[in-house]
């Protein structure tokens, strides 16, 4: 063990205020200096790689685990619906004007059949919810293809590549895996207009390593087998494609040389280019006449073809630095290209992030540049004007409704927008639960006030506990919010890299709150800040050192030296503190963890420090948690993956960390992001495949809750009020909550004696049970965890009925409570 003594204190200050912005904040976007591959870096330290086979094995483990009835409770959706999140694709069936499909960066696939009023997740049974592209057959709109893996590089969101291709033949009700599990992320899917079984796929390959599994792939048997038809290099994938609307032999593919490492990136090179095939992908020729040819300057390329005149295509080239290099048009199927009015396009940099080019299907001269913002030309690119004004920045997807004139849908980092007048104005859809949260908090004085910090979508909150009334109160990428537990009007909010703001007027305005924190200190993308549990005027803030304030962030003082191992040239770590916890029993007892595997303790409020991690894994420490009931007990959790005989993910100590017990036990090899300690409710873990629970340390873990999809859970919050709710913040599916006051209600376990039939159902559903109590409660939750139907039946009958005729098609969970016994059953409505 190592002991250090504080020998110096620094008094420097930086500003820490971000104002809210209705259009997003350009500062949230990556630069060379910003650690914006945070999700990957957490999980990849120290090896620099992810163990993707371990992720798949963890999903399989989760599906196989038996559940005690006390853990088979449904999660309730906690919002928000109206904040939104990153959308990677939008599709509208050609014959269903009110049906839309959207793909979310890390939230799966959603479908609406009423023009966006209500949405249902239709991909939640799959193990990977990161979506690259969706394609719907024009001949049979029940046939849908989904390619997994967000194709955008970095941007704070990417933890995992995709796991291949999936196909549905019934409008998304059921799915079949259709191969290509190793191609990383999917840039584009094309279905031959004359043959449903012939599909071409553009694959970008794994993001963080060179790999030959990238390029154009083709199947002629509906995905049973695939052939790689275009391979450029092991660092060059296919980012975009286009196909002739009536001749599937004519195909275009845009290649992008892209090298991404935690410490560097190369977004272009000589192998970026535009290719054409006239034989369905069997042979390819590069298109160069009138297009950029300088090897060092070619970056991301996007392309689209006119549906009304297929000889017309548009292409946008970005250079390796991220600036728009040129916007081009061809009128002869790609033989020659002419640069259009590139100078009128807004050039903000980092254009490798944006969606590209979309041509109005009814007019070859109407084209949209879908970019940081949206610009539109009605004369083939000769002139440009603003379109979709006042939407969230960072555009990725666009779709035209073939059945409704003027209806255009736009997808960006803030969600989905609909225009009914070709982009002249638009309205945001307020019903999609796809926010990517890093952190959350619930006000101790008013549990209806729930706060969350999100990627791309700032710090937002609800003051009513509602699902659709969340408002952004602090800009940038959002991280840990806090509320003074003695004054609901005092709020702290963080944006990326430790930019801390404070409000004293219930969030109406914020001012910088980092006075005394050295501007030269290293600050994590997700900088930790916490309150003393007994004194709201005392807070702690972590750089590579621990800072303390005793006057509610008026000024800060360092109370430690460097608790990390120092800077790391490989940038897999930041050399920073990642977690801080203060014992509620003895507030001089403070624990911290770092991104390079260190765990420290002070027993005297920071005068002396003792290192506790000599026998712990060298991985990113995600949480150190002091037991709220016993001062000698402490827990620590780790991100990353085990290799060989390396230690587990969860450790427990009964002597303040002097010795540790690995309590990972049966938990699969999966990153853990947070831990919450209840009393008799148990111990809860946030993992990359959901929430796990044990009754007490040393028991086997089990998945907790029934209807939470396999989404990354980034943060847990245990409500200390009498309501006993556990909250889970997810990275792509907003927030959920569950009443853990019921977590120990086993009573007479009648799970095996209860049946729900028929299943699937379309009319009446009968619930049969043995020995019910006098009152039976039935609550039906939809796929989002919203209470869809509830009723209490009396009389002690052995069977009860209810109708599902008015239910939407999809999956539901039926929670049946009889006295102290309860069970949750899955129900499919068809």
Describe the model.
- The chain is mostly beta strands and 830 residues long.
- Among the domains are: 89-95 and 153-419, 7 Propeller (Methylamine Dehydrogenase, Chain H); 750-829, Immunoglobulin-like.
- The protein is 2% helix and 38% strand.
- The chain is built from two helices and 68 strands.
- A five-stranded antiparallel sheet has the order 1-50-49-48-47, with no helix packed on it. A four-stranded antiparallel sheet has the order 3-61-60-59, with no helix packed on it.
- A hairpin with a 7-residue loop joins β6 and β7 (120-121).
- The longest helix has 13 residues, at 52-64.
- The N and C termini lie far apart (61 Å).
- Residues 1-35 and 744-748 have low confidence and may be disordered.
- This is Por secretion system C-terminal sorting domain-containing protein.
- Residues 165-291 form the Sortilin N-terminal domain.
- Residues 1-19 form the signal peptide.
Chain-wise SSE layout:
Elements: E1 3-5, E2 12-13, H1 38-44, H2 52-64, E3 76-79, E4 87-91, E5 100-104, E6 108-112, E7 120-121, E8 131-136, E9 144-148, E10 165-168, E11 176-177, E12 185-191, E13 199-205, E14 215-219, E15 227-230, E16 236-243, E17 251-257, E18 259-261, E19 264-266, E20 273-277, E21 285-287, E22 301-305, E23 313-318, E24 324-330, E25 338-339, E26 356-359, E27 367-370, E28 374-377, E29 385-387, E30 395-400, E31 408-412, E32 415-419, E33 427-428, E34 437-442, E35 450-454, E36 458-462, E37 471-474, E38 482-483, E39 491-495, E40 499-503, E41 511-512, E42 515-516, E43 529-531, E44 539-542, E45 546-549, E46 557-558, E47 577-582, E48 590-594, E49 599-602, E50 608-611, E51 621-626, E52 634-638, E53 650-653, E54 661-662, E55 672-677, E56 683-687, E57 690-694, E58 702-703, E59 713-718, E60 725-730, E61 735-739, E62 755-757, E63 764-768, E64 775-781, E65 787-794, E66 799-803, E67 810-818, E68 821-829
Antiparallel strand pairs: 1-50, 2-42, 3-61, 4-5, 5-6, 6-7, 8-9, 9-10, 10-11, 12-13, 13-14, 14-15, 16-17, 17-20, 18-19, 20-21, 22-23, 23-24, 24-25, 26-27, 27-28, 28-29, 30-31, 31-32, 32-33, 34-35, 35-36, 36-37, 38-39, 39-40, 40-41, 43-44, 44-45, 45-46, 47-48, 48-49, 49-50, 51-52, 52-53, 53-54, ...
InterPro entries: Secre_tail, Sortilin_N, WD40/YVTN_repeat-like_dom_sf, Xyloglucanase_GH74
Domain Sortilin N-terminal: 165-291
Signal peptide: 1-19
């Amino acid at each position: 063990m190592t002991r250090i003594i504080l020998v110096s204190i620094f008094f420097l200050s930086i500003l820490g205020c971000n104002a809210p912005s209705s259009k997003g904040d350009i500062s949230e976007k990556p630069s060379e200096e910003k650690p914006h591959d945070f999700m990957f870096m957490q999980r990849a330290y120290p090896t620099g790689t992810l163990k993707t086979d371990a992720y798949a094995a963890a999903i399989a483990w989760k599906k196989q685990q038996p559940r005690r009835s006390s853990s088979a409770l449904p999660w309730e959706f906690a919002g928000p619906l109206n904040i939104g999140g990153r959308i990677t694709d939008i599709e509208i069936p050609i014959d269903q004007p009110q049906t839309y499909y959207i793909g979310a960066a890390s939230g799966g696939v959603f479908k609406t059949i009423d023009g966006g009023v209500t949405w249902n997740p239709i991909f939640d049974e799959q193990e990977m919810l990161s979506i690259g592209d969706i394609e719907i057959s024009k001949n049979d709109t029940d046939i849908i293809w989904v390619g997994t893996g967000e194709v955008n590089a970095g941007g704070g969101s990417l933890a995992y590549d995709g796991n291949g291709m999936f196909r549905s033949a019934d409008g998304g009700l059921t799915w079949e895996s259709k191969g290509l599990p190793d191609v990383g992320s999917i840039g584009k899917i094309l279905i031959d207009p004359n043959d449903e079984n012939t599909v071409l796929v553009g694959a970008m390959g794994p993001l963080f390593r060179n790999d030959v599994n990238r390029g154009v792939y083709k199947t002629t048997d509906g995905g049973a087998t695939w052939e790689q038809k275009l391979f450029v290099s092991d660092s060059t994938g296919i980012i975009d494609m286009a196909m002739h609307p009536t001749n599937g032999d004519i195909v275009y593919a845009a290649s992008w040389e892209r090298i991404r490492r935690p410490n560097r990136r190369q977004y272009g090179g000589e192998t970026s280019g535009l290719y054409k095939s006239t034989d369905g992908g069997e042979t390819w020729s590069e298109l160069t006449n009138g297009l950029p040819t300088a090897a060092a300057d070619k970056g991301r390329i996007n392309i689209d073809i006119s549906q009304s005149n297929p000889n017309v295509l548009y292409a946008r080239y970005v250079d390796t630095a991220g600036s728009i290099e040129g916007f081009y048009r061809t009128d002869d199927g790609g033989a020659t290209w002419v640069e259009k009015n590139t100078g009128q396009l807004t050039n903000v940099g980092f254009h490798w992030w944006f969606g590209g080019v979309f041509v109005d299907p009814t007019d070859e001269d109407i084209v949209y540049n879908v970019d940081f913002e949206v610009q539109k030309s009605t004369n083939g690119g000769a002139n440009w004007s603003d379109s979709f004004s006042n939407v969230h920045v960072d555009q990725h997807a666009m779709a035209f409704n073939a059945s409704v004139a003027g209806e255009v849908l736009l997808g960006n980092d803030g969600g989905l927008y609909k225009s009914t007048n070709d982009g002249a104005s638009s309205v945001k859809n307020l019903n999609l639960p796809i926010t990517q949260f890093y952190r959350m908090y619930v006000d101790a004085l008013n549990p209806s006030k729930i706060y969350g910090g999100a990627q791309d979508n700032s710090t937002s909150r609800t003051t009513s506990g509602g699902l659709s009334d969340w408002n952004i109160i602090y800009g940038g990428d959002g991280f840990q919010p806090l509320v003074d537990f003695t004054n609901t009007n005092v709020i702290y909010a963080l944006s990326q890299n430790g930019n801390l703001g404070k409000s004293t007027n219930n969030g109406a305005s914020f001012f910088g709150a980092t006075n005394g924190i050295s501007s030269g200190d290293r600050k994590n993308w997700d900088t930790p800040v916490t309150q003393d549990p007994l004194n709201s005027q005392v807070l702690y803030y972590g750089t590579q050192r621990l800072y303390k304030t005793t006057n509610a962030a008026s000024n800060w003082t360092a109370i430690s030296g460097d608790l990390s191992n120092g800077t790391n040239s490989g940038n897999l770590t930041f050399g920073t503190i990642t977690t801080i916890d203060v014992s509620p029993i003895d507030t001089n007892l403070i624990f911290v963890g770092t991104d390079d595997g260190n765990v420290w303790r002070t027993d005297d409020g920071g005068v002396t420090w003792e290192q506790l991690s000599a026998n712990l894994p060298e991985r990113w420490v995600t949480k150190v948690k002091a037991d709220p009931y016993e001062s000698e007990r402490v827990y620590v959790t780790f991100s990353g993956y085990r290799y060989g005989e390396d230690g587990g993910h969860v450790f427990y100590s009964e002597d303040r960390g002097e010795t540790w017990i690995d309590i990972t036990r049966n938990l699969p090899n999966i990153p853990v992001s947070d831990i919450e300690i209840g009393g008799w409710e148990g111990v809860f873990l946030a993992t990359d495949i959901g929430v796990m629970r044990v009754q007490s340390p040393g028991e086997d873990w089990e998945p907790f809750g029934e209807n939470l999809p396999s989404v990354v859970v980034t943060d847990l919050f245990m409500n200390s009020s009498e309501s006993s709710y556990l909250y889970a913040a997810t990275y792509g599916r907003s927030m959920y909550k569950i009443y853990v006051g019921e977590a120990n209600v086993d009573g007479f376990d009648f799970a095996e004696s209860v049946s729900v039939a028929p299943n699937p159902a379309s009319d009446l559903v009968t619930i049969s049970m043995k020995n019910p109590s006098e009152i039976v409660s039935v609550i039906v939750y939809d796929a989002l965890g919203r209470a869809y139907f509830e009723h209490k039946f009396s009389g002690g009958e052995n069977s009860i009925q209810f109708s599902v005729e008015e239910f939407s098609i999809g999956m539901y969970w039926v929670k049946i409570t009889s006295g102290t016994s309860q069970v949750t059953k899955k129900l499919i409505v068809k």
